[in-house]
What does this fold into?
Amino acid sequence: MTRALVMLPLYLLGFEQAALNAYITLVGVQAVAIHANLGINFGWLRYIIATPKFYHWHHAKDHRYMDANYAVHLPVIDMIFGTYRCPKGEWPEEYGNMSGKPPEGFWKQLVFPYKRKCKKKTK
It folds into this structure.
């Protein structure tokens, strides 16, 4: 839905097909990159574009960083609204909003949210 809301005005404004394709490619790559465990120091770029570190703090299980880093592409939006949190030289110790740690292993993590919902419904 978000992509459609962005693409429709760009299309109606007459942007070339190549520009629209470049945008879709860029946001696709960035969406994968911000969710990756990349410990790369992006330096000053961390203030320009959303980086993995920026987005990881969005998911941090730490009350000091709750309700932070909502911008999809541009951290300046969070800076304007006072929701920017990205401490230099640190990474979150834990992620999520559940108690305890997630299960070990890909498949157990994949089905974990569904098991929790099923348990709640059966109680």
The helical segments are 2-12, 17-34, 52-58, 75-81, 106-122. The mean pLDDT is 84. The first helix runs from residue 2 to 12.
